[in-house]
Amino acid sequence: MNNELIILEQLPIIKAKLEQISTEIKEKVDNATSLIVNEDTIKEVKKVRAELNKEFNELETQRKQVKQAIMSKYDEFEEIYKDKVSNLYKDADSTLKEKIDSVENELKQEKENELIDFFEEHQKLNHLEGLIEFSDIGLNVTISASMKSLKDQIKEFCEKVANDIKAMQTDEYQDEIWLEYKFSKLFDYAKAKTIVVERHRKQEEFKQQVSKVGEDIKQEEITINNIETIVSAPKEVVEEQKDWYEFSALMTETQAKELKEWLKARNIEMR
Fold first, then answer.
1. Dihedral pair phi/psi, residue 130, rounded to 5°
2. pLDDT tens digit string along 29-83?
3. Cα dihedral 11→14→16→22 (10° resolution)
4. What is the DSSP string of the chain?
5. Which positions ≥6 away from 115 have C-beta within 8 Å?
6. Range ranked top by mean pLDDT from 17-21, 67-71, 238-242
7. What is the largest CA-CA distance in the chain?
8. Where exactly are the structural domains of the chain?
9. Which of 97, 129, 177, 238 is the most buried (most CB within 10 A)?
């Protein structure tokens, strides 16, 4: 097929004109930027700048018009191109992909069925029925994958699980380890055991902390009860032995009467 069926003919003509215009513009710009700007020349420089901006805006208008004209023609061309060329290729590619995918999926399914049969044989051979599934292996079954390599992975996986289960049977936490091993998709005895042992260590640590808190609370309650018992216990009244005491005091008659009344009020005998 001729690879030059699509040719743009007008671009070189536009490019030639732009090169011609560019030379003229560069000369004007060089002259303008070389002007000395001061109080006397500033009006003239502003006029030159305005003329340059006016020319630029006019060219920008023409550029946009050219772009619109070019894009209009291109849009017409693209619509015809899609209808006559690209859609034909895309439809062909889509049709061929569907046919290829259909055949490859059939081949892949046949391959996977053979691998499942191989897995079930080794599952029984290692007494793993109901314990593991084909999906547990995580095989990447593709058309290009080697059957020998895939079967070797199945065999190694089944043998490893069987050996791990034997090791678990002597472990005090075998049920918990199996749950981590199987349902967490670890399929690694050492890792599963580490997780379970660490969990039990934390549980024991928690129990000790709870027990200590309980003992502390209990001790505090005992202390509080002892204090309440001491506070609320009736105080023993010790009756003092009475005796006669004699003394002299210098006072007025009125003070003597008051003292007598005070002693009488406190059940103190006088003679």
1. 80, -5
2. 888 888 888 888 888 888 888 998 998 899 889 888 888 888 888 898 899 889 9
3. -130
4. --TTSS---SHHHHHHHHHHHHHHHHHHHHHHHTSPPSTTTHHHHHHHHHHHHHHHHHHHHHHHHHHHHHHHHHHHHHHHHIIIIIHHHHHHHHHHHHHHHHHHHHHHHHHHHHHHHHHHHHHHHTT-TTT--GGGG-----SSS-HHHHHHHHHHHHHHHHHHHHHHTTSTTHHHHHHHHHHTT---HHHHHHHHHHHHHHHHHHHHHHHHHHHHHHHHHHHHHHHHHHHHSPPPPPPPPP----------HHHHHHHHHHHHHTT----
5. 134, 139, 141, 147, 150, 151, 154
6. 67-71
7. 154
8. 11-97, 171-225
9. 177
For the whole model, what pTM was predicted? 0.56
CA distances in angstroms from 64 to 8, 70, 74, 268, listed in the order given: 19, 10, 15, 128
The first and second tokens of residue 246, run together, are 């004699």
Which residue type sits at 86? S
Q: Which tokens go with 207?
A: 């129990």
Amino acid identity of 189? Y
